Amino acid sequence: MTDLGTHGEAGLERGRVDLQRYGHALMGTYGEPMRVLTRGEGSWVWDADGNRYLDLLGGIAVNALGHGHPAWVAAIAQQAATLAHTSNFFATEPQIRLAERLLELAQAPHGSRVFFCNSGTEANEAAFKMARKTGKRTVIALEGGFHGRSMGALSMTHKEALRAPFAPLLEHMVFVPRDDVDALKAAVAENAADLAAIILEPIQGESGVRPLSHAFLAMARELTLRHEALLVMDEVQTGVARTGAWFAHQLAGIQPDVMTLAKGLGGGFPIGAVIAFGEKAGGLLVKGDHGTTFGGNALAAAAANATLDVIQEQDLLAHAKTVGEHLRTSLEALDGVVEVRGEGLMLGIGLAAPVSAAVAKAAVDAGFIVNPPSPDTIRLVPALTLTTAEADLFIAWMAEHATRLISEGSA
Ligand SMILES: *Cc1c(COP(=O)(O)O)cnc(C)c1O
């Protein structure tokens, strides 16, 4: 194994002082940060004390090209120096080009349209407003689903701990168990006359990397077509090459009416998008219905265009598939690992005991950034440029150390 530097308690003095300032100045919405990070390069980041970490979380599926990719940096610098922001009273070429490219990559039919925003929750707010514009009200969402923290997106998010402090949320929401075809059919039958939309993530991210079966996705498609409701695919985490396809719904061979994007789209620059497929969905939001000051400004669009350029030029779809399969087969073979879920470079390592928090903490102390979305799951959503050699460093650490933590946890 290569030397990852020291990550012990003695090396943390400077980071500790910064974290004290953090605690006094920032709202406590995220709990205590693991480290203070100062720079990154590719799949590596450094903390305030000079320790190096292999970043297998990628800013939660955001840093698609890793940190500081030269083409991405150059595109942002160039656009910033040329024209960064204009307001939506004006159009810019980077924004038009990005919209055209997304429609093409999504194989969207004639009449499809794009709306740009700045985040995942905003993209889902726009999708929710599209659902309301159908003239019907009921939205079906899934247990375990996550769609964001603003009030519309939160209303479509199932987790009670996130919802309860902010009740009352929007009404006419119906939740069904994930991947339960019969429950979905029953919920649709019960709400047939008022069904505006079904929203789902093709692979649930925040609840622990849980893919929906292609049969369930096909049934959601069939039912929404039959009842003239929108099928909204929340691809905020799964979209933009993360799963080895441009968009995860393409793996299931279906096309939604609405797709929401954010995380990986700008490669670390904030941007979100809503794709409306076809004339009907494309025409739901009309002049005056929706807007945002920053959405799709030239700087954000240039960052996203650069991200798509690199993904295309380096065929990161194929690369994500290859490195993802390598991680999957290697990790699946370890004692204490029950299964590895997901596609491409969106992987959930299912542990034999509910020790994911302890494993994630031991990992960061050893120089690996991973994340425990559920008690028995470690999530990997690294840069799409992660190399097999880098993946092997983590596999070796898991083989040496995590197996022991898991067996201690189940004892
Ligand atoms: C992260 C996420 C969101 C929310 O995105 P923000 O940019 O944090 O608002 C919505 N949906 C899914 C599937 C996500 O993973």
From TrEMBL:
<keyword id="KW-0808">Transferase</keyword>
<dbReference type="GO" id="GO:0005737">
    <property type="term" value="C:cytoplasm"/>
</dbReference>
<dbReference type="Pfam" id="PF00202">
    <property type="entry name" value="Aminotran_3"/>
</dbReference>
<comment type="similarity">
    <text>Belongs to the class-III pyridoxal-phosphate-dependent aminotransferase family. ArgD subfamily.</text>
</comment>
<dbReference type="GO" id="GO:0003992">
    <property type="term" value="F:N2-acetyl-L-ornithine:2-oxoglutarate 5-aminotransferase activity"/>
</dbReference>
<feature type="binding site">
    <location>
        <begin position="120"/>
        <end position="121"/>
    </location>
    <ligand>
        <name>pyridoxal 5'-phosphate</name>
    </ligand>
</feature>
<dbReference type="InterPro" id="IPR049704">
    <property type="entry name" value="Aminotrans_3_PPA_site"/>
</dbReference>
<feature type="binding site">
    <location>
        <position position="146"/>
    </location>
    <ligand>
        <name>pyridoxal 5'-phosphate</name>
    </ligand>
</feature>
<dbReference type="GO" id="GO:0006526">
    <property type="term" value="P:L-arginine biosynthetic process"/>
</dbReference>
<keyword id="KW-0663">Pyridoxal phosphate</keyword>
<dbReference type="InterPro" id="IPR050103">
    <property type="entry name" value="Class-III_PLP-dep_AT"/>
</dbReference>
<keyword id="KW-0055">Arginine biosynthesis</keyword>
<dbReference type="InterPro" id="IPR005814">
    <property type="entry name" value="Aminotrans_3"/>
</dbReference>
<feature type="modified residue" description="N6-(pyridoxal phosphate)lysine">
    <location>
        <position position="263"/>
    </location>
</feature>
<dbReference type="GO" id="GO:0030170">
    <property type="term" value="F:pyridoxal phosphate binding"/>
</dbReference>
<feature type="binding site">
    <location>
        <position position="293"/>
    </location>
    <ligand>
        <name>pyridoxal 5'-phosphate</name>
    </ligand>
</feature>
<keyword id="KW-0963">Cytoplasm</keyword>
<feature type="binding site">
    <location>
        <position position="292"/>
    </location>
    <ligand>
        <name>N(2)-acetyl-L-ornithine</name>
    </ligand>
</feature>
<dbReference type="GO" id="GO:0042802">
    <property type="term" value="F:identical protein binding"/>
</dbReference>
<protein>
    <recommendedName>
        <fullName>Acetylornithine aminotransferase</fullName>
        <ecNumber>2.6.1.11</ecNumber>
    </recommendedName>
</protein>
<feature type="binding site">
    <location>
        <begin position="234"/>
        <end position="237"/>
    </location>
    <ligand>
        <name>pyridoxal 5'-phosphate</name>
    </ligand>
</feature>
<comment type="pathway">
    <text>Amino-acid biosynthesis; L-arginine biosynthesis; N(2)-acetyl-L-ornithine from L-glutamate: step 4/4.</text>
</comment>
<dbReference type="InterPro" id="IPR015424">
    <property type="entry name" value="PyrdxlP-dep_Trfase"/>
</dbReference>
<keyword id="KW-0032">Aminotransferase</keyword>
<dbReference type="InterPro" id="IPR004636">
    <property type="entry name" value="AcOrn/SuccOrn_fam"/>
</dbReference>
<keyword id="KW-0028">Amino-acid biosynthesis</keyword>
<dbReference type="InterPro" id="IPR015421">
    <property type="entry name" value="PyrdxlP-dep_Trfase_major"/>
</dbReference>
<feature type="binding site">
    <location>
        <position position="149"/>
    </location>
    <ligand>
        <name>N(2)-acetyl-L-ornithine</name>
    </ligand>
</feature>
<comment type="subunit">
    <text>Homodimer.</text>
</comment>
<dbReference type="InterPro" id="IPR015422">
    <property type="entry name" value="PyrdxlP-dep_Trfase_small"/>
</dbReference>
